[in-house]
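Marked as duplicate of an earlier ticket. Keeping the data here for the record.
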Amino acid sequence: MPIPAYIICSESGSQDALTNRVSAFNIMDTLQVQRLPQGQATTPPSMFVLSMWIREENDANINYQAELVFHMPNAEAERIVASMNFTFSLPTQRLIFAGPMFTEYLGPGMLRIEVRSRPAGQGDWLARHHFPGPRYS
């Protein structure tokens, strides 16, 4: 079972094609959101979420599914933002979710970010890790 190591949330990031190193820019601890007048268009804010997982001995050759989930302040249900499949080829596995992720504003409070994993096709999420994400204000 993959072991969660860490989550980093930032405004943007990049991965070097030659070295495979990752950089995160403007790590987020607060997210300023402003309600716009009805009908006014805007571009949703982007986010770069880096999630690191550690392989256990029996994790080799298993296809895992991962989901990025937001638990929004004042929301009744979680919001699945993105999903991907992965297989460990090294002792650690980086999952990168990047792009626009906010389409609604539900009021001020704490946004909790979760990345969870399970063997693809299975029902229960077997590993989860949380980041007490940026505070909405």
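See parent ticket for discussion. The first strand starts at residue 3 and ends at 15.
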